[in-house]
Amino acid sequence: MEAQRLSTLRAYNSPGQDALKDALLENRIPRVVIVGTGFVGSTTAYALMMSGMAAEIVLIDRDARRAEGQVNDLRDAEVFSHTTRLFAGDFSDCRSADITVITAGVSQAGQRSRIQSLSETGTIVHDLVSNVCRQEPRGILLLASNPVDALTYAVSKWSGLPANRVIGSGTSLDTSRFRRRLAARYGVASANVHAYVIGEHGDSQVPVLSSARVAGFPLDEFCDQVGQPCEESTFTGIASDTRTAGVDIIDAKGGTYYGIGAALVRIIRAILRDEDAILTVSSLVPKSMELGEVSLSLPSIVNRHGIARVLSVALNSSERKALEASAEVVRRQITTLAQTTPIPGFSGNGSPSKERIAALTKSTRANGERVTPKEQWPGIPAWSRFKSNFTNPRHA
């Protein structure tokens, strides 16, 4: 399909016509390519079509028949929503895409954790990124495959693209879960809650209570305003529920896709509409934040160029320690991944021990009970009181 769409460009192959070709590509209509048409990919395509933001949506899958089936199903729904051109395509379509979304990976249904499937998913994503980047894409790579933070780091290296053009979905969904739970606790709309989950999209994530706000008030002040008790156990429970929400859904229905599909469309909107929106997406952490060579989810300004800036967050001392521990968790994931699929330029501190790899991949006991985050990540401190001394990381 892309060969036909770029036939005009091929008429301008003389050395002096590069600027004209660039102009034609820059003025293309909004196009999003989604690689992987499983539950997450197809749900993202549906949500994106219903939003009306993309003029063209292209689905790519190793099973071409499934991709065609998803497209035909979406076309039936398109009649009732927004006019959208829907195609089953190939990797050549990524060249002119504004955004290429990679959702392919290994299912986490059953007892498999994100870490247990790391090497297999890493191989899949590496091959997909290689195919995409052979097309010299001009747009943004948006990654949803898990573990998303480690893979975002790897993709930024495998692709050779500027760091701002490789984005992981990160803790964007965790942040929405956190805000929704805080809003329910206080009986207000989620839009009136400002709070972030940062770090890893996983068990070591850090819900930031110390700088959370409801209607502009710190949590303790808002409690006083509405006459509600302000107990640490309540907020610790909300943080814990947020952390385990994805696993609970997977245990109940075998996968999560509505939430992440909506989160991906929110990120796509920020890019296509050049919003300068602040979202907790995953990207390479600036050296000035002193968290090491790693990708993490941090509040970031997102626009048509991708990541315009990574912002620091006001943290108390315990939250800062938890963020550093989360960075170490992701760094060890990257080290494990690099052992099976080399990552250019990665300078991890050697290979993890067999015992450490076993700890990273252990999510259940012999009797089938789930290992708690505290047991799996003993180095991460308990969630601290939200009123404490702030320490601000340096700005990027």
Which terms would index this structure?
single chain, 396 residues, alpha/beta, Rossmann fold, L-2-Hydroxyisocaproate Dehydrogenase, Chain A, domain 2, six-stranded parallel beta sheet, three-stranded antiparallel beta sheet, 14 helices, 43% helix, globular, disordered C terminus
Short description, anyone?
The protein is 43% helix and 17% strand. It has 396 residues and is an alpha/beta fold.
Protein architecture, described:
The chain has 396 residues and is an alpha/beta fold. It has two domains: 16-168, Rossmann fold (3-Layer(aba) Sandwich); 171-396, Lactate dehydrogenase/glycoside hydrolase, family 4, C-terminal (L-2-Hydroxyisocaproate Dehydrogenase, Chain A, domain 2, Alpha-Beta Complex). Helices cover 43% and strands 17% of the residues. The chain has helices at residues 2-5, 7-10, 18-26, 39-51, 64-78, 118-133, 148-159, 172-186, 219-226, 232-253, 258-272, 317-340, 354-361, 373-376, and strands at 31-35, 56-60, 85-88, 99-102, 140-143, 166-168, 193-198, 206-214, 217-218, 277-284, 295-303, 306-310, 315-316, 390-391. The strands form four sheets. A six-stranded parallel sheet has the order 3-2-1-4-5-6, sandwiched between helices. A three-stranded antiparallel sheet has the order 7-8-9. Strands 10-11-12 form a three-stranded antiparallel sheet. Strand 2, helix 5 and strand 3 form a beta-alpha-beta unit. The longest helix is centred in the C-terminal third of the chain and has 24 residues, at 317-340. It is globular. It starts with a helix and ends in a 5-residue tail after the last strand.
